[in-house]
Specification:
Oligomer: single chain
Number of helices: 14
Bound molecules: uridine-diphosphate-N-acetylglucosamine
Structural class: alpha/beta
Largest sheet: 4 strands, mixed
Helix content: 25-40%
Distance between the termini: 5 Å
């Protein structure tokens, strides 16, 4: 299996272009299930998770052509089943549940089960589908849902759930009558999906706020739309500039989606210049510790928690990083400690005392964002870091090692 080898100590300099957002592309591709005919989606990143959803949609009978710009046609749906093998490798496969029930009247989707960063149940997706009138049973590890036609309803999400909001927003577009989603998640990816659905003829208002209103329609039509830039990838490069004391321009991003991170990095002593669709980040000088608490958008994203922890590991002072979204998202900590970081976990918080230097080590990641954080730590460390289980990073970052080496990082992939 491939490994990524990093020799730390190089300051990153230059321009990097951000790819389309994985977490927007996945629901947008799933939304094609709601319509017959060819949709065109631009700025789809080239990632393993995208290959997985393509495979899943293909297994349902959906035709897909292209790379980067994808043409997707769900005129004929030949199966309503998302198998365990596909859902197991990517939880977001659950996103086909809502569209399938809404369009075809039935779906059978494997329960995702646990994963490295916590239990991550789908109870809220199921409860909301039931509220829309679907008959849902759990059988043999699968969710089976049926409804002749979904009926609009008022739904309150106990917890802000991103894919839950997306799943039910998609389902409600074809329901009879009006649906109100309360305590809806507000992530930019939800706004992007809502825009695509509106382009398909859906009647949606309020996406981006915590109340989304959907007036169901009889049918939708194909659309052409673009995926927003990946805010987590952009955030990772901002932190990469900081941790290496570099100077990096991040092109083709949406700085408005990164307010929480930018504020923290400025507090930590980084200089960040904001333009309309680019950022320039400089990390010269010493970095100060800041406290971080992850929250649903517009709060600090849990998907950047591991990466900012790498930065805090070498900042001056003491930082408390609190994870409130997922219960078990500190899997990177033990690996960072092996690189010389001083981190103690206390319940939902990690107490990070900055050290003057990390040192390279063989490390192994257990999830996507943890892998990114170990690469960042490796860029700052003295000596060589070898990251194994590279398949995690390939799920969500397009050619991260190429983008970092183009900025001057000493990083390469080796087959093995
Ligand atoms: C999405 C993102 C993921 C990100 C996460 C939080 C995608 C494809 N993935 O994941 O990268 O880390 O949002 O920003 O967009 N929960 C329940 N019951 C449910 C659903 C969720 O209890 O039915 C809980 C989860 O366990 C978690 C919290 O709600 O504690 C938020 O999870 P959620 O927003 O649903 O995460 P995902 O949509 O899976």
């Amino acid at each position: 299996m491939d490994k990524i080898v990093i020799v730390g100590g190089e300051r990153l300099r230059g321009d990097v272009r951000i790819s389309g957002a994985k977490n927007a592309a996945l629901p947008i591709l799933a939304s094609a299930l709601l319509v017959g005919g060819w949709n065109t989606f631009h700025n789809i990143p080239d990632l393993v998770d995208i290959k997985t959803i393509r495979k899943l949609l293909n297994s349902l009978g959906v035709e897909i052509e292209g790379q980067g710009t994808l043409r997707v046609n769900a005129s004929v749906i030949t199966s309503c089943e998302a198998s365990y093998d596909l859902v197991r490798t990517m939880r977001a496969s659950i996103l086909v549940l809502g569209p399938l029930v809404a369009r075809v009247g039935e779906a059978r989707v494997s329960l995702p089960g646990g994963c490295a960063i916590g239990a991550r149940p789908v109870n809220l997706h199921i409860k909301a589908l039931q509220a829309l009138g679907a008959e849902v049973t759990l059988k043999d590890g699968y969710v089976e849902a049926k409804a002749a036609r979904l009926k609009g309803a008022e739904i309150y999400f106990d917890i802000s759930t991103v894919t839950g909001t997306e799943n039910i927003m998609m389902a409600a577009t074809l329901a009879e009558g009006k649906t109100l989603l309360k305590n809806a998640a507000r992530e930019p990816e939800i706004v992007n999906l809502a825009e695509v659905l509106i382009g398909m003829g859906a009647r949606i208002s309020g996406a981006g706020s915590d109340v989304i209103t959907i007036e169901g329609v009889e049918r939708l039509h194909p659309a052409e739309a673009a995926v927003i830039p990946d805010r987590i990838e952009a955030g990772t490069f901002l932190i990469a500039a900081g941790i290496t004391g570099g100077d990096v321009r991040i092109l083709g991003c949406n700085p408005l989606h990164l307010d929480a991170l930018i504020a923290k990095l400025r507090d930590a002593g980084m200089r960040i210049d904001v333009a309309e669709d680019s950022l320039r980040a400089a990390g010269g000088g010493s970095l100060r510790s800041v406290d971080v608490k992850t929250l649903p958008y517009p709060g600090f994203p849990t998907d950047l928690q591991a990466q900012i922890m790498a930065l805090m590991a070498v900042a001056k002072g003491r930082s408390v990083i609190t994870e409130t979204v997922f219960e078990n998202r500190f899997m990177h900590v033990s690996e960072m400690i092996r690189m010389g970081a001083d981190i103690v976990i206390q319940g939902k918080s990690a107490l990070v005392r900055g050290v003057s230097k990390l040192h390279g080590a063989p490390v192994m990641a257990t999830d996507l964002r943890a892998s990114a954080s170990l690469i960042l730590a490796g860029l700052a460390a003295e000596g060589t870091t070898v990251l194994s289980r590279v398949y995690h990073i390939d799920r969500g970052y397009q050619q991260i090692e190429k983008k970092l080496s183009a900025l001057g990082g000493d990083i390469r992939r080796v087959a093995g």
